[in-house]
Amino acid sequence: MHVYDAVAPAKVNLTLHVLSKRPDGYHDLASLMVPISLADRLRIEVGEGSAVRVEVPGRPELEGDSNLCAAAARAFARELGSAGSVRVVLDKRVPIAAGLGGGSSDAAAVLRALARHRGVALDDPRLHAAALSVGSDVPFFLRCEAALVGGRGELLLPAPGLPELLAFVIVQAPYGVSAREAYEGLAAMRASGELPPGHDEPLPAALGSAEEVAGILTNDLEAAVSRTRPIGDCKTRLLEAGVLAALMSGSGPSVLGVARDAAHAEACARSLRRAPGEEVHVARTLKAFSD
């Protein structure tokens, strides 16, 4: 048996433009995504046979074949051939259904481990195909570095220059939002004329400070989710606590606040008026990542 320990960082979307709907039912996107220090931990055991098993201590509802870790192992076998039996023990720390990509990152961690086991390069197109078949965010997490993400998630381009470190206050709501709910809500608002059609906005070649990053925050899904969830209230409380700017991440409902630096993020987190059931995380960007 071979054992691989892996880290699965969350992500935040600093920009998210939802463009036209594709023939395959997905939307084309244009998003600046960055990995952050909030992360799950995984132990991946590869042995004889072909069984796939996922265990999530303390969270039995997340175990079983529906977990994206299991889907990743099956996708790897389908695209590259079986690596053997796979047992994943997942220490779940990233909130689920929160717009932070936790499940997709877990899946990518399994793919990286199996690729390492089989001597497969991370840029192998078969590995990329396996990642995309599991979920739109999974290709981003294979390398887990800041990127401009296009298509439905399969197109990855270098990100603009970013500060060496960005610090965030992330508010985790006591409820989840499915991506389907967010996208259907946006489609309804666009169909009624409440929101204009989607369009991309070019970014500067470099963003040299936290203040400049704060100035580009945008998320097309935020308005739709805000109709049924108190996203605006959370943003207001973050701004009152002193962050430079606040934005819903991904399909929500997590809301991030951009801080000047790590110390400022900690101070804002302490000052934040918290709603019942909320959890607050202080996180930073990951400049370079490896398991």
UniProtKB/TrEMBL annotation:
It comes from the Bacteria. Residues 223-274 form the GHMP kinase C-terminal domain. GO terms for molecular function: 4-(cytidine 5'-diphospho)-2-C-methyl-D-erythritol kinase activity; ATP binding. Keywords: ATP-binding, Isoprene biosynthesis, Kinase, Nucleotide-binding, Transferase. One of its GO terms (biological process) is terpenoid biosynthetic process. Pathway: Isoprenoid biosynthesis; isopentenyl diphosphate biosynthesis via DXP pathway; isopentenyl diphosphate from 1-deoxy-D-xylulose 5-phosphate: step 3/6. The keyword Transcription regulation does not apply. The active site is at residues 11, 137. It catalyses: 4-CDP-2-C-methyl-D-erythritol + ATP = 4-CDP-2-C-methyl-D-erythritol 2-phosphate + ADP + H(+). Residues 67-142 form the GHMP kinase N-terminal domain. ATP binds at residues 95-105. Its EC number is 2.7.1.148. Catalyzes the phosphorylation of the position 2 hydroxy group of 4-diphosphocytidyl-2C-methyl-D-erythritol. Belongs to the GHMP kinase family. IspE subfamily. PANTHER family: 4-DIPHOSPHOCYTIDYL-2-C-METHYL-D-ERYTHRITOL KINASE, CHLOROPLASTIC. This is 4-diphosphocytidyl-2-C-methyl-D-erythritol kinase. It comes from Vulgatibacter incomptus. The gene is ispE.
